Amino acid sequence: MDRAPDKRDGENETDPDDAFGGASANRVDRPTRVDRRTVLGALAGAGSAAVAGCSGSEPDDAATSDLDPDRLDELAARFAPTLYFDAAEPWFPTDPRPYTVEEDGETVVDGFAAFDGYHERYDEAGEPPNPTVFYNGMRYEDSPLAVVQFWFYSAFDQFTANFHWHDWEVLHVFVDLDTGDPQLYVASSHSRSVPNNEFLDPDPDVVPRILPELGSHSSTLSVNEQADTFQRVGEEGLLADITNTTIDTVEDLLGIPIAYGLPRDEGARLPFVVPEYEGEPIYDHPDLPSVTEESLVDGALTIRSLDALRSPPTDLPLRETGIAYRYGDREDPIADETADEVVEYDLVESAELEEIAAFTGPQLSFEFAVPQAVEDAVASHITTTGVPWEQPRYENPALDVTAGNHRSELAARYDAIAEDPSFGDGAAESLDAVVARVTQATETDEAPDGEGLTTTDAGVESFVLIESDPEAVPTFAGGVAVANGVPEGDHRLTVNGAGRTPHSETLTVSADEPVTMAGADGEIPLVARENARKVELSDAESDVDLTRTAVEDDFAGRIYDSAIDGSDAVYVHAGGAYTTEVRDADDEVGAYRVNPDPAASGSDDGDDSGETEDPIRIERPETGAAPLAGYVADVAEETRAAVAAAAAEDDGDGSDDGDDDDDSGGGSGAGGGGGSGGGPSNAVNGLERALAAAVDQAERAEERAREGDREGTNRQLANVLDRIARIEERLAAARAGLPPGLANATGKRIEQATKRVEQARNAEKL
Description:
Radius of gyration: 30 Å
Shape: elongated
Strand content: 25-35%
Number of strands: 37
Structural class: alpha+beta
């Protein structure tokens, strides 16, 4: 694995577990940090502003100043949250100051020192060391609106395809100073690519509650009666824990409010990966003597890499509550009743940390497989943390409001919050989101054995990487993939999942479209490695310039659709039967039949790569009428052979009572009624002959096309359509004599063949 370069805070990307905002007004009583602010303002354009509205928008909120110290302390003590941690959590909020060192005249927190020192102290004390929550307060000028921020520092972040030294999370509590009532809670989500978890108008008499994600510490809210669970949508008398709404086009596709949430609390499995540095597990590093394998996330939830399994894990534990953190100067009987153990934390003003210049440590890397003709991998995309007090949201917390309905509501209540056209209802005009639902491909009972698929809920969360962003983000809510702030242009999107082969596609994000749907109509089916076959094609030895590929299963429909640059590779389920469509630079179409041998899949050859057979290669792909007619001949012959085999196994005598006409000519013959007069067996034989006639006419059409005979090609294609009409008649009569799966498949293939004949008739190219 590639070694990633060391990165100091001034050089690295934004924190993957925090959602940054746009440029803020300067804090009036502190010096302006111009260089840092310029960088962060640019990042903010693709951050929370992009989540709520258009990339690059910078709401013109009022300037902020420090809260009165006594009022700040009062509000901090009142709203100090209780945190309910996962039972497997190893890194709890602590004080980073014991791990500071001096480097080049600056005070920094060293990643090795913090990671090792935390575990040394934890092991010695037998309890989380230095439990601490930091707070900061800001007031918007000439407004009663104020915000108390609670910052949580953890020594390490371990989250499958994303792990790094140090971790900062935040809860913003927006408060009306005149009434004392909280207006909005904003808890930092896993990624700046998805909205934060937010709740408008929380109960002023209920202590805020946070449910940190295991390992990553991204924060969901809990406001309902079940203190230690996350409720995305209100039901069964329980409030939803978020009041986020989304742009209609997004919610119509995904069906849920977009916010990261807690996958393992919502019934989905989430595998964790062992962090590596310089190719070795991080606990083997000589500079981490106090860190052992047991220091990391529990091994029951852990895999060594996403491709270490041949099928998705189904036995990973779901979320259980362990330790609760509460403010030491306040009782919390709900925490006492709910958690296995309650730890009291200290509240410390974050201003005491502001002499720390950076949180340092070498950047960790993780490989992401990319299916190409020659397998590739993307590495070094793991991001690291920044310094909270140099982030724009530290001084303008409204930049972390990522749900458009919440910003619009705050703007309606307070003049200090700008009513920006990129938020709220107008955001649909300029939202730059890529969305999809990741599913799993499995065989369907509706098809012949090994010749048809369906797609179902993924069950195990996956991880998405867009080449323009160094951060791999997880799916949530059972397979929802969201990436916001994606720049206009062409992008390569790759999805990896534990025990599954990778999916990769090229898509175009247009400034005219608020939402870009990835996959095929917004769905990306992944394939278990044990069932996977790779399909490859390249125009290197062809006369065409390929620009797009699509794959359709007979039963599941289109499962892959991507722009390409001359070559492509896609993993398909060996239990499917496929039409592979290609397009060239002139928008001419070609089609090829791909029906893997299901018996070849899953054989144990000692290779854990997931490829048990050589790739299926489409050599010298073509477009135009000739390959389309050839495809129709192939799929008709494949179906004819299956029907013939079914007829041979039929219990009847298989005789033909002469009801079937000679299928060598066009149109319907005297047999009428689809050849049903002799019963199901004769009808099946009639269906076979109709398929054979279609094969003959399609082969003749291909021959005429290759000879350059357009008139002859069109005549033969018309004959093919006649034969397809005859097949439909014979299939209706033969269904009772065919296995149900074969009858279903024949109907599906007739539809596909008809589509390809029409494409051939409309093709400019023979």
